[in-house]
Amino acid sequence: MARPDTRPELVTHDDQTRQASEEQSLEEAAALSPHMIYEVIRRDGEEELARTKRSLFWSGIAAGILISLSVLGEAILRTYLADTSTRYLIENLGYSLGFLAVILSRMQLFTENTITTVLPVMRARTWASLGCMLRLWGIVLAANVIGAFVAAALFVYTPAIPPEIMPAIVALSEHAMGMSATDSFWRAIPAGVIIALIVWMLPQASSAAFFIIVVFTWLIAAGDFTHIVAGSVEMAVLMLRGALGPIDAVTGFFLPVLGGNIIGGTVIFTLVAWGQVRDDITAKTKS
Fold first, then answer.
1. Is residue 191 included in any domain, yes or no?
2. DSSP code for 51
């Protein structure tokens, strides 16, 4: 008697295995829930809070230096693009370069920390966790500013930047520092919200991370919003050239923009994000 042909069954089994694998891949690629996004960011924040002061400091300096690519990229496009009605929108794409370098390299940028490290504190709600967050904020902000001054010194004191590009860097810096303290403060709030939004979207962005960073940081530049770290490069350029005094720099730009970024990234966006997941976290804790 001939043996039955079992090949169709083997093919069916292989198909079922493949389908099961595909289903698993689809489930893994499905959109993360707000609670899962919160958990990803919160755990990143806990890792940042646990890092040593030295690690935070040097990472912050690197971020401050590389964020200067935003000013440089915008200046290069302004210098070499024809002066047309659309040049403003195109040149602001250069502003995304510094943020791409810093965020994709996972360096310490102050405005990212205003959401990443706040979420663990909002869950723990202890003075110790608040102290750790403020310590990290202080170290990272100081390091970012030092890095910004290092980059500005390279622009101003060395021939590293072609002379035809420097006028555009100076013009961008004068525009940023020419705002009143009130305007700088209010325009910093949307920038803080946008940076926090980028942080919130990245956990499920995967291959789209590049485009998310480009589009939303372009929006900061095109909207003429103010960012404390990128703006510190422009502030430093004018200070090192002797065109801006320390008091005017601190009171007219630094403190207003710092306050606006914190309000936008922490008080507004983080509280809204926390509101989405608070009930889920509370219910999970009780169970």
1. yes
2. S
